[in-house]
Amino acid sequence: MENQQQQAPQPIRCKAAVCRAAGEPLAIEEIVVDPPKAYEVRIRIVCTSLCHSDVTFWRMKDFPGIFPRIIGHEAFGVVESVGEHAGEFAAGDAVVPTFLGQCSECVDCRSPRSNMCSRYRFAVRPGMPRDGATRFSDAQGRPLHHFLGVSSFAEYTVVDVNHVVKVNPAMPPSLACLLSCGASTGVGAAWKLAKVEPGSSVAIFGLGAVGLAVAEGARICGASKIIGVDINPDKHELGKKFGVTHFINPKELGEKPVSQVIVEMTDGGADYCFECIGLAALMNDAFLSSREGWGKTIILGVEMHGAPLSIPSRQILHGKSVIGSMFGGVKPKQDIPILADKYLNKELELDKFITHEVGLKDINEAFDLLLQGKSVRCIIWMNK
User: Fold this and answer.
1) Shortest CA distance to 196 belongs to which of 270, 284, 107?
2) Assigned CATH class of 186-327
3) Per-residue pLDDT tens digits for 233-257
4) In Å, how far are 170, 231, 240, 360 from 277, measured between CA atoms?
5) Closest CA to 159 of 73, 275, 94
């Protein structure tokens, strides 16, 4: 009986950064994390980082903004315990959790044309994907909501097996963390979705972490001209580290449209345009900047005001296309290990994304750095 009790996972008390209300600083609290149920694993988070999507939902007052909640979704950790039917994982596995699931069995997961699992569809839920319930409670026993199936701003979290990817333990934790969301999204958009060819031209609207990751992906694919578009002049020098060859600040163009400048720079329009901000007007600019005949515009940004995309229908007839992107077309379980190998083979450069590091107790500093535009990625360490 004693041996059985030792084997059965028990609730864990640990620290977490809890979001109690929209836009308020996160509070470091003691929480209780339940054992994993069937098809779940409990992960000890080693480090996590702050993504713009975390900030979006931290500010969101209406559903699917919901409180109290443990946000965070870009992380690296080690499996602490596994539930029933989670046999592909074992305690001690090095893993990254992902907001996008992959069951590997549905028609979409089996197809090379999609990374959108149709058996367990993507949704912003307050609970776990299978039963909708929470695995977190606060010190008073009150429930705490989940975020994107990950909730990484905690020392321990419970994640569905479809949202967990094993990675090579040789990967440094902080860099494996980046593959959980931002770096994979941008690199994947160039590599998997657009399939950027050697010698091609690329225009990237918005040089935040995802835009810079697109530049890194385009560089790896061999693009000869990588144009970065951003109103922050500091992004000019930063972009060079990621392979950006030309920089445009729309504020410095006077009355000249940015699309006209790009068309002139590329002798007819960029082969691939990526919108990484989330503004319908910029999506339109990206489309107008793409080449007639084969120009592709890839939309990575979530429109922050919910505005519709409006593009000239006549230009569509000229052979241009617009592609939506979720997680850069990356199939998590299949492609994240490939990206890890690209790093270990010194093909993919990840170190340059990390601009700051803090401990969990200073997590609000990470928010300040991102909101002030000072950080690309701030790593938040659980044990510092």
Assistant:
1) 270
2) alpha beta
3) 999 999 999 999 999 999 999 999 9
4) 33, 12, 19, 28
5) 73
